[in-house]
Amino acid sequence: MIVDRKKETPVEAASLYECHLIHKHDSHKTRRQALDRLVHLYTWANDVGVDLDRQLLSGEGFTQPQARSFAAWLRKRWMQDNGVLPYTKRKTLNSTLMGCSVICRWFISQFARPESETKHKRVIDLEILLSAQKRIWKELNVKIRKESVAEDLSDEEIMKIESFLRPENRSGLVGWDIATRDYLIWRIAIEFGLRIGEILALRVEDCPTRSTPYFRVMRIEERDLNYFDPRRDPPRPKTLSRDLGILLDNSRFPNLVNEYVSTNRYVPVIHKGKKKKRFNLPHRFLITARSGNPLSQKMASKIAQKIKQGTGVDFHWHLARHAFFNRAYAAAAEIQDREEKKIRMADLIVWGGWESPDSLDIYSRRARRERAKTPLKIWQHGGNVWNALN
């Protein structure tokens, strides 16, 4: 909820838009992102003395000078001391402007009342207003170099992380259960290229067993009607649902999952004055906190921070996904047979859970860049063994 700082009361237009977001989006993160953009608009309006509530609720949208003023205000906030807007902030600026455009056009569609002679003419005039508003915001986008490449982890960095996270090396500091949990998250991320949100949303029944040797990634809306996630900000897989089999000959699965579930996925309790481990938890999520509750995204980020501190590698969880797909793409690109290569590339799109082949572009650009320097060795030497993970 967005509150007026002076009156300490909910802002009317913002409250209406929040209701719209609740009905339109299931994802808490998506709703929060849209509201963050609305907060930017209100903060700017307060700074320059614009009655934004009146303007939005009358369906006026933004004038071109107002939109330019807002964009300049954002750039000033995100600009470096040398006057340069960093690449990441350029992307943030464009996405923020696009989000603000969506907000303004929604209010126009709801509250604008063109004074037209007929109903048909009013519909046309409304479309003209919406198109004009979209154009005003689009013209403010800053140029972004599109030749971006996926980040990567070197094999040396992977070996550092692997060594740091192994339970036998870390259990003395955090306990065997936490060490095994963190190592499990890492191996799922690096072996299968899953997003951290997908990993946190995994349930025990989604994991590989000897009879069903694959992970099942399932979108929230495709789960059963009784599905419930007690987390305040539940992780939601962004990608398409898919089943992912065990790829590497030196994989730690399914044994690692079995070990974790049977000995480390529990909540400590006191029973008749004695400490006990309760393995029957009130939820089915695989990855848990010390309390037995499903692990939050905030805590997962803290684990990534500990990896960064313990290894010196500038690590975040999405790097593991990039490291997997950089190697998987480069391996597929080396296939000489055209039809086989085409099939392998299509398999990669399914594996990544993407809807569009364009999602592979950042990996193809990195592969081309690496080939320009030196031949890229995928799994180093020999078959499907990734030696950095031994």
TrEMBL record:
Superkingdom per UniProt: Bacteria
InterPro entries attached to this UniProt entry: DNA_brk_join_enz, Integrase-like_cat_sf, Integrase_catalytic, Tyrosine_recombinase_XerCD
Keywords attached to this entry: DNA integration, DNA recombination, DNA-binding
PROSITE patterns registered for this protein in UniProt: TYR_RECOMBINASE (PS51898)
BP GO terms, sorted: DNA integration; DNA recombination
CDD domains, per the entry: DNA_BRE_C (cd00397)
Protein name (record): Phage integrase family protein
Native organism taxonomy: Bacteria, Pseudomonadati, Pseudomonadota, Gammaproteobacteria, Pseudomonadales
